[in-house]
Design goal:
15 strands; 5-stranded mixed β-sheet
């Protein structure tokens, strides 16, 4: 008896499906393509509660399993339109992602959808393949957090990794609070706030930012009206301050600029200047108007301050421009890797069903297995 997805076939048996499941958006398409086929929200209508839920807002492993089943079901049959059975899948994953998510995703892929093979590709490492370079300091500022991993000659320097809960989510929270105060009678939703942020907000300069809230505060930019069912007036002050939370240092004196400097300090001294001159920004938040200019100004000011002047002798920071938009640069890196036959990187269905686990570079079991193979050779 044929199941529903047995009637759907691949466009070509050789193409691999590339998935980048972000906390806010998921990018999907095929290996060898220059851009994803589509970008959709990483959310699904829960089959039990009938509510729209984000995949990463799971309660426990069982809840995550069901959310992934519902989400991938819609992804495969509504958007990608392929048969997942025996398909070859590449999933971009952060090196700092919880093991619970990776293991549950593999279980859903192999046991529920019966895919043929799965390649879990580190996001930061895959990204540098879009530049044609082996060394870069990759900063990913997404929806929930900012993560940073320096890569030198294709080797991630994991001791220097940085992560902070700074991303579009805190920008949305600020905008939602400010707009509700300005327009209390209008229903301000998450999607509405996101569209307002993209259309009307910007990252102000370091010079103007230092004067905000003081007696020398400059005149605010003009207010704008957001068109819709009801016109919403967005004050100029709100437009300018929306992204300020990304640059404000917390109680530990940490912010996005300090992430970069602290990571460089933890790298070997002979790699620091090269990393500072090869910075790559990815993630939708970095697409905000003025983001790169503000980041560069912050770095130049911080490196001359008392916090870093005695520790770091660097006065130049250079940023790469990837051949794609920052929000899908990681996906493009996966699409490039997907064109290369890397059987050692793939977990096949047969191997997974024998152990019911995904090999992990940090696991002693997997390391011992590699050592035994080396000894036999």
């Amino acid at each position: 008896m044929l199941r529903g997805y047995d009637t759907i076939r691949f466009l070509t048996d050789k193409q691999m499906v590339i998935l980048d499941i972000g906390s806010a958006y998921t990018k999907f398409g095929y290996a060898g393509e220059a851009a994803p086929r589509s970008i959709i929200r990483t959310e699904v209508k829960c089959s039990e509660t009938k509510e729209i839920r984000r995949i990463y807002d799971y309660k426990d492993t069982e809840d995550l399993y069901q959310l992934l089943v519902d989400f991938l079901q819609a992804l495969f049959f509504k958007h990608v339109v392929i048969s997942p059975k025996d398909a070859r899948i590449v999933v971009l994953e952060s090196a700092l992602a919880p093991l619970q998510f990776k293991d549950t995703l593999a279980k859903v892929m192999f046991q529920h959808f019966e895919i043929g093979s799965l390649m879990l590709l580190p996001t930061h490492l895959a990204t540098i393949s879009t530049l044609g370079t082996n060394t870069a300091l990759v900063l990913d500022v997404g929806y929930k957090e900012a993560t940073l991993i320096p890569i030198f000659e294709t080797v991630p320097i994991l001791k220097a990794w940085q992560a902070l809960p700074l991303g579009s989510q805190i920008v949305h929270e600020y905008l939602m609070k400010a707009l509700k105060e300005a327009s209390p009678n209008i229903d301000i939703t998450e999607k509405l706030v996101e569209d307002m942020k993209v259309r009307t907000c910007f990252v102000t300069t370091l010079e103007r930012s230092s004067k905000l809230g003081t007696t020398e505060a400059p005149a605010p930019p003009p207010s704008v009206k957001y068109p819709g069912i009801k016109n919403i007036n967005i004050p100029g002050e709100v437009r300018e301050k929306a992204f300020e939370a990304l640059w404000e240092r917390d109680n530990d004196n940490l912010s996005i600029p300090t992430m970069i400097l602290d990571a460089i300090l933890q790298c070997p001294i002979d790699t620091r200047r090269l990393l500072a001159e090869n910075i790559l920004l990815i993630g939708g938040t970095t697409m905000a108007k003025g983001f790169i200019g503000r980041l560069k100004s912050e770095l130049l000011a911080l490196v001359k301050s008392s916090l870093y002047s005695d520790k770091l002798k660097i006065d130049t920071f250079k940023f790469h421009t990837a051949p794609s938009k920052p929000n899908y640069t990681a996906w493009l890196g996966g699409a490039i890797f997907g064109t290369i036959d890397l059987p050692s990187r793939c977990v096949t269905k047969e191997n997974y069903l024998k152990s019911n686990r995904v090999p992990d570079w940090a696991s002693l079991i997997d390391n011992q297995r590699d050592e035994l193979v080396a000894c036999d050779v």
